[in-house]
Amino acid sequence: MANMELWYTENQTDNVNFSMKVKEHLYSAQSDFQKIDILNTYEFGRVLVIDNWTMVTEKDEFIYHEMITHVAMSTNPDIKNILVIGAGDGGTVRELTRYNTITNIDMVEIDELVVRASQEFLPFTANKLEDPRVNLYFEDGIKFISGKENLYDLIIVDSTDPIGPGEGLFTKEFYTDCFNALTDKGILINQCESPYYPNNATEMRRSFSKLEELFDVCEAYQYHMPTYPSGHWMFCFASKNLHPLKDFDATRWNALNLTTKYYNTDLHIGCFSLPTYVKQLLRD
Amino acid sequence: MANMELWYTENQTDNVNFSMKVKEHLYSAQSDFQKIDILNTYEFGRVLVIDNWTMVTEKDEFIYHEMITHVAMSTNPDIKNILVIGAGDGGTVRELTRYNTITNIDMVEIDELVVRASQEFLPFTANKLEDPRVNLYFEDGIKFISGKENLYDLIIVDSTDPIGPGEGLFTKEFYTDCFNALTDKGILINQCESPYYPNNATEMRRSFSKLEELFDVCEAYQYHMPTYPSGHWMFCFASKNLHPLKDFDATRWNALNLTTKYYNTDLHIGCFSLPTYVKQLLRD
After folding, report:
1. Could you say which residues bind S-methyl-5'-thioadenosine here (chains A, B) (predicted)?
2. How many domains does chain A have?
């Protein structure tokens, strides 16, 4: 007797599907904000899917979470006070808690259910949310940051795509609030989509151009993220003063002896070297 | 009345499928060596599929073909005599013919039918095969190169995966013949798979370690190839004498004023900065 085959298919574009074979559909819930699913898959281990988009997989989450944190932390090792918006799976906080120099992490996730489901099913990312330096706020990040001034050394916007609850995290008003909430040497790291498929590329350009208007330093960097559409994804590094290459001291970061699987100080420099078509998209 | 939906699904691994929506199945043939299909797709334009593996798409072939050629050409602008093995779609030769300094390109493709089909259906890659400097040989590259000595400034192995007709192009015997056929400053560029899925990673390691035993200089570089499994792919740069970073002169290449969409001289440097897990795979 043949076993039933269960596949999760993601419509990466109207004309492109990506499918992973599923061992078990572990969790499914509709929160006040979005649909949350957790799968156990053959190739990628456990997978968090929100509104039918793959957010985190056990196999490659290390790439995303190392790249969203260590580029800023190595540019300014004096970072002490951090705001993380989104990031409900906990992976971003897990990486940050590895720095003993960090004294406070405010994590603002609009959807408590993502955090609770991650704590139950994704212990590999959600295992540091009870670190005493971490304060969890289940609130709208847009409201949380409004009016705050000169407070955070680093703000990480670890959001879903700019549709649904993540939409307001891609506006000029929100970026202006981030600018104001940052200290003089403050850095903003922003999930800013992908250059390859037209929908993602449009959002990447919009997000980058808004940040570039506000911040003296604004640079995009790339990483290989196999389970996201096209596998070619970007973060933006924006700062009032610090430049991710000019103010970067590889020796200092390497002396911390942090073990990483994707990030390293050579890659730190290399990831800002973008393909010509991506540069053109960003500068147009 | 609903239109029929036609999708091409590639089994990237046993547990991962990648599917593209097809406008028209333009061509299908079984040659003496392999199955050749050409599709017209909504997202990627025309697509060459060999033995059910995507080889070339109109949308992103520029990435592959720029990266397989310009890294070597910019490391040694004195390259004059070139051997290309495989590359039946013509894209590698197209990029090479842009250099006026090149005097001869021997292209050895085992399967004439790939070339003829590409000339008919993929003019965007196959449009320079009639350049007077190009000599087409429809032979086995392994036999062609055997016994040749001190002849080529550059050998590019633009092969399919190491299964089927491409298999012999990943052996130590073949690499030794390449070594012998190269001039003192000769460079070998080799398609060497991907670090992400286990099957590809195994082949990447095998190929790299064989080259590393033979050549004083052996470095891997990465590129984003969205329509290949995982999107994270690698070439090997092997040479008796020239180093892709130490012997690289960005000013000289930029003075050529070649327009590229992916490759640029910053990226040239950046693409050799590999993620930690990839370095570990290569050095183990």
Report:
1. 34, 109, 140-141, 165
2. 2
